[in-house]
Each structure stands twice: as C-alpha cells, then as structure tokens.
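Please fill in the sequence for the structure shown.

STRUCTURE ENCODING:
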C-alpha cells in the first residue's frame, strides 16, 4: 500500500507512536536490537542490568560500556519517553503525584504511595480514557491514545529509582506493589499492558522483579479481554469496577455495561479466580443516594456469596462539576456491615492523595491545573 492510500488516522497513529525502548522488548529482542546497531548481543544484557537492576538510564554511570558507545546505545534503547511536568506531594512527602508529558505532548499521571508495610505505584495505561464513566475525571475528557509498554514501565521505574535513592521520606526502599488504577482502561490497551506487566514482574535484569501477586489490573469489565487475561498464566490480581449490582444503574455509572452486563462480567471474573486461585477485588465507589442503598448492598452480597471475591468500597472522590458526592459515612458503614454480615470480605479503600487530586478518579492530567 502506498502511503497515500493509508487512512489518515492510521498515519497519525504511527506518528504518535513513541520510539522503541528497552522496556518494550524481551531479552531476545533486546539482543537483536543491539546487534542491529552493530554491537555484540551481550551489550543488551549490560544495558538491561543498568536499567532494570541498577535503575539507571544515565550513560555516565554505565562504566562497563566503552565510553564512545554509551551515548549511542542509550539514545537508541533508553530514549526518555516521559518527562516530569509537575510533581505534587502530600502526607509528608510519602504520597506524590507526577504529571508526565510524553514526546507527542500527551499527558499522564502516576502516584506513589508509601505506607509502613508497602510502597504502591498507581500507573496510567492510557492518556485519557474512552470508557466515559460519569463520576471519573479521566473519563470526562475521552481517550487521547494508548501508552506503549515502555511508557507504562517508565512510571514504575521512576518510583523504583526514587525509592532506591532514598528520595521518599522513610529511607531507601523498593516499590512493592503496582496498581493499574491511574488513567485509562488497561484492558483496552491489552498488548502494551501485558508487555508492561511482564517487564514489571520479570526478575531483574529482564524486568523490575516485582511480584506478580503484587500487581493489580483494574477493569471496567471488558469480558473478552478478561477471558484472554485468564489464559495468560499470570498470577496478577484482577479488580473489577462494579459500582452497582444491577444493570439499570450500572448502565449509567459504567457505560460499557450496556455491552457486557453485570452477570457476564462477574462470570468472567469467577473464571479468572478459578484459573488463578486469586480473589477478585470488586471495586465499589460509594456515591450518595445513587448506589449506596441497603437493598443494593444485599443484592451485591447475593451476587458475591460463596465466590472468591473481596469488596473494596471507595468513598467517591468528587470531581469538578460533578453532581455526585461521597456517601454519608453512616450510610457507607451500614452498606459495609450488610456485606460483612453476609460473610463477604469487605474493606474501605483509603483516599490518599485527595488533596493533590491524586486519588481514584481524580487524575485528569491537564497542565493548566
Ligand atoms: N479503568 C480502570 C482503571 C482506572 S480507575 C477501571 O475502571 O477499573 C481505578 C478505580 O477508581 C476504578 O475502580 C474506578 O471506577 C475508580 N474511580 C474512578 N473515579 C472515581 C471517583 N471519582 N471516586 C472514587 N473512585 C473512582
């Protein structure tokens, strides 16, 4: 096909594609890429150790590589994909949100949260999101584009490096957990997210060496993609953003429900639980007078009874211009009690980062804010 025959949107798509990066490639492909540059394959292993084990992308620090070569290798395989546009902190510096700008100008955000027993990176999988959930800030602006695997891994890398360098109050440490709960619908960017999951969890120096069990992929409920994920042989946690036990309300809160109904989404989730032995996390944003009724708690309990599931209640983080607000604490407590009394494991998600618009559903990534 001549370039004139390529539809304009495809050409634009190609233009926007970020350059190739070590984190997009498995170890075989890294060696091939280095050989294409006329260098022996073992240089790829050296680069991998620097990036994934030593957490550096600075050619000056790569003293085992010939000085004349470092700059070229780094330019070819470790191009800077995201640059820090802004960083906001709260909780004494243990919660930090980073606004990143990609090479084409696309903006995304990630959040690092340090707790006493773990450090969680919340990453974006897309710039914007196409799922249009009306209570979520990201959903309001629509989808800009998918991120590449390396653009996702870069967010985790930055957190891991800050921890390794002791730049987060509390001393040196590691990123222990990764949640795909930033901007975007991870299962709508399936290939890149899967590659990113592998790079994040492959043992160093193939990847960052974070446990698969400590990675959570959160989805609105794209049923075919959940089924595909079930077949990958991974042990990552699946989170399903349910938010309503009935199709009538869920059609409104999570519009993709018009395509895949509550029963189908949960069926796919139970298939995932059966294949992996992992409890599925059911996400439920508590929205005042919208989805927090006692009868909905009971309906939810019936759907989940006897299943390998756990409910995560999230007090709604109101987004600008939204007509909705968080449930009354008493009502939320009753909702929780009703689930617990039916034997459903239930916890309330902490709302870290609210002050810096870094909590669930607040990531909007506008440079103007
Ligand atoms: N697209 C994926 C992952 C990103 S959102 C998904 O929907 O699961 C991560 C979680 O935050 C989801 O459960 C989402 O429904 C929830 N969320 C979005 N907006 C929120 C808000 N304003 N308050 C509380 N939780 C919100």
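FILLED IN BY: designer on duty
SEQUENCE:
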């Amino acid at each position: 096909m001549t370039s004139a025959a390529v539809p304009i949107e495809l050409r634009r798509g190609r233009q926007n594609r970020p350059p190739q990066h070590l984190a997009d490639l498995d170890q075989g492909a890294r060696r091939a890429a280095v050989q294409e540059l006329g260098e022996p394959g073992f240089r790829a292993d050296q680069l991998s150790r620097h990036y994934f084990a030593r957490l550096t992308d600075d050619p000056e620090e790569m003293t085992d590589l010939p000085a004349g070569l470092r700059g070229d290798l780094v330019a070819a395989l470790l191009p800077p994909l995201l640059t820090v546009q802004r960083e906001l902190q709260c909780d004494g510096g243990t919660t930090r949100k980073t606004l990143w700008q990609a090479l084409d100008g696309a903006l995304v955000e990630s959040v690092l949260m340090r707790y006493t027993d773990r450090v969680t990176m919340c990453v974006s999988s897309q710039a914007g999101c196409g799922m249009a959930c009306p209570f979520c800030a990201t959903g309001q602006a629509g989808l800009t584009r998918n991120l590449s695997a390396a653009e996702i891994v870069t967010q985790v890398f930055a957190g891991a490096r800050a921890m390794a360098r002791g730049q987060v109050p509390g001393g040196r440490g590691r990123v222990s957990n990764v949640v795909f709960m930033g901007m975007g619908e991870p299962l709508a960017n399936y290939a890149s997210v899967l590659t990113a999951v592998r790079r994040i969890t492959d043992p160093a120096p193939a990847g960052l060496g974070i446990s698969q069990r400590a990675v959570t992929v959160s989805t609105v409920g794209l049923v075919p993609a959940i089924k595909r994920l079930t077949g990958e042989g991974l042990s990552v946690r699946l989170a399903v953003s349910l938010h309503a036990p009935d199709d009538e309300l869920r059609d409104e809160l999570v519009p993709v429900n018009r395509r895949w109904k509550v029963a189908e989404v949960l069926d796919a989730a139970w298939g995932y639980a059966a294949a992996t032995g992992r409890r599925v996390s059911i996400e439920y944003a508590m929205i005042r007078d919208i989805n927090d009724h006692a009868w909905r708690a009971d309906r939810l309990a019936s759907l989940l009874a006897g299943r390998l599931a756990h409910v995560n209640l999230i007090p709604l983080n109101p987004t600008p211009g939204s007509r909705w607000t968080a449930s009354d604490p008493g009502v939320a407590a009753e909702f929780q009690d009703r689930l617990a009394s039916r034997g459903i494991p239930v916890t309330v998600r902490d709302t870290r980062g609210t002050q810096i618009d870094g909590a669930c559903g607040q990531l909007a990534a506008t440079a103007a804010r």
